[in-house]
Design goal:
The protein has 249 residues and is an all-alpha fold. Helix content is 76%, strand content 0%. The protein starts with a helix and ends with a helix.
Length: 249
């Protein structure tokens, strides 16, 4: 019986103590707010473990007060989703790319939407996925980044037939036109040249010319410049006749 009474008194004492502490916190916070001391109000809320109140008060205070309170809250709260929120608030999505598990790459990619650093973030994520051996995911991220050279490099690994070469060129050119990119890697230029030569040898001169036009004049080899001129002459009979007169063909 005495044990029950002691427990009852202890519980009553704890309850009274909690009420007194709560009232003291309310009084102190209100007083700090009235005199415009938001920093003290936030400090009192944190001491009472009232983080929601502390964040609300900090938000109406100075920028430095908000950032300080937010940092303290993140250090105390280890919830994984808060890392995402923190990266978005501080505009440091690159940290997510470097720390977030690659198995969540789709969710990470979705976070980049409408960000100015979209290309860089997608490119970095793609490189990490490539290093992890996830070639398909890496390819999709390189496409999102508009990185034609890297995408082409991956696609060309399986290029072992003329049919595959045609598919490869079609996909690469569509991607190039979609991104508006006009400068390509040396390996891609070589393949475009090779494909244009194949098309020209099959009599598809107009199509071959369209592929050659995708490359800048400075990127063409001497042989391709000659081929381009010959195709231009052959598709315009008048120029072809002048070409014969002046020894170009």
């Amino acid at each position: 019986m005495q044990m029950v009474q002691r427990k009852s008194k202890m519980m009553m004492w704890k309850w009274k103590r909690a009420v007194i502490l709560h009232l003291m916190t309310v009084f102190t916070v209100q007083r700090a707010l009235v005199v415009g001391d938001n920093k003290r109000a936030v400090s009192q809320c944190i001491s009472a473990n009232k983080w929601a109140d502390a964040l609300v008060i900090a938000h109406v205070g100075t920028t430095s007060l908000w950032e300080s309170t937010w940092d303290q809250y993140l250090k105390k709260n280890r919830s994984p989703y808060l890392k995402v929120v923190s990266a978005m608030v501080s505009n440091d999505l690159l940290s997510l790319v470097n720390t977030r598990p690659l198995k969540f790459w789709k969710e990470t990619l979705a976070l980049f939407a409408q960000r100015d650093e979209w290309t860089m973030l997608c490119d970095t994520l793609a490189s990490k996925l490539m290093g992890d051996g996830n070639t398909l995911a890496a390819t999709l991220c390189f496409i999102c980044a508009g990185n034609i050279d890297k995408t082409f490099e991956i696609w060309s690994r399986s290029c072992n037939s003329l049919k595959f070469l045609q598919d490869l060129m079609e996909k690469t050119i569509v991607l190039a036109l979609a991104t508006g990119q006009k400068r390509f890697s040396a390996s891609l230029c070589k393949l475009v040249e090779k494909y244009a030569e194949i098309l020209a040898s099959q009599g598809l001169l107009t199509t071959a010319m369209e592929y050659l036009k995708l490359l800048g004049s400075e990127e063409l080899s001497t042989e391709l410049v000659i081929l381009k001129d010959l195709i231009a002459l052959s598709t315009e009979p008048g120029k072809l006749f002048l070409g014969f007169l002046y020894g170009m063909v």
